[in-house]
Amino acid sequence: MTLKFIHLTDTHQVRPGERLYGLDPRQRLDAAVASIAREHPDAAFVAVTGDLAHWGEPQAYEALREALAPLPMPVHLLLGNHDDRAAFRAAFPAAPTDAEGFVQFAFEAGGQRVVCLDTNEPGVSWGVLCERRAAWLADALADAARAGRPVHLMLHHPPFAVGIRAMDRISLRDPGPLRAALEPHRAVVRHLYFGHLHRPIAGSWLGVPFSTVRATSHQVALRLADSDRVPGSHEPPQYGVVLSDAQGTVVHLHDFADPSDRFDL
């Protein structure tokens, strides 16, 4: 059995009518939703890995809820550094949380387990996975291992440097608790997904394959030189189409707004 799902990230919604870096984030998200509904209605779910809103206003989360409503499959939302946990929970009261109120949850799809983490820390841009959140993760991974379920692990902030130094400074600040929770169960983690970087990047960390995609909103340019400023760009938005079965996992990166002609070769 093949599990198919969509990885979407960094929607950065703002109040209706506002623009961000010259773009309309709602328009871009609407285009992504239309593409997913048209091209991938058979996907089991959509996961959005954080930075749902740009400033965290209630109106931005209302816009997000409206934009995602046409999707014919469940949508699972993670928090990023731009998000406001209280405003998010007010707009999405059914969103699952752990016992401490962090937006952390796990669910099954296609005989596999999806584990979603909350790395939001109010007042800072970098990510935090404290000992309490990491303890929840350790329990979730142990439970998946006992059940014999491969895990797709999701969070907003990457727990390692990628070479874009302005972004590396605001990645997961201390990956130690995450590593400690992950190490005993590394074999059960099939793939790691994150957002935050607004770029298509893939590789492996601690032997675990990872991938991320461009945002539906603005992008981060590929500039590896050291800089205090985050380099921006208006490269095309993307989402990932994930196909996972007993043999492995494939992630297709789809530039859904690319206007290029399509034709048979």
Strand and helix map with partners:
Blueprint: E1 3-8, H1 25-39, E2 46-49, H2 58-68, E3 75-78, H3 85-91, E4 105-109, E5 112-116, H4 131-147, E6 151-154, H5 165-168, H6 176-182, E7 189-193, E8 201-205, E9 208-212, E10 219-220, E11 232-233, E12 239-244, E13 249-254
Parallel strand pairs: 1-2, 2-3, 5-6, 6-7, 7-9
Antiparallel strand pairs: 1-12, 4-5, 8-9, 10-11, 12-13
Helix pairs in contact: 1-2, 2-3, 4-6
Strand residues, percent? 15-25%
What low-confidence regions span 5 or more consecutive residues with pLDDT below 50? Answer: none
**Average pLDDT taken over every residue:** 97
CATH superfamily: Metallo-dependent phosphatases
Order of helices and strands: EHEHEHEEHEHHEEEEEEE
Question: How many alpha or pi helices?
Answer: 6
CATH architecture: 4-Layer Sandwich
Per the CATH scheme, the topology name is Purple Acid Phosphatase, chain A, domain 2
The neighbouring-strand order within the major sheet is 4-5-6-7-9-8
- How many β-strands, per DSSP? 13
CATH class (first level) name: Alpha Beta
Helix proportion? 10-25%
Alpha carbon gap, first and last residue: 30 Å
Rg, alpha carbons: 17 Å
Class by alpha and beta content:
alpha/beta
Largest sheet: 6 strands, mixed
Shape: globular
Tally of distinct domains:
1
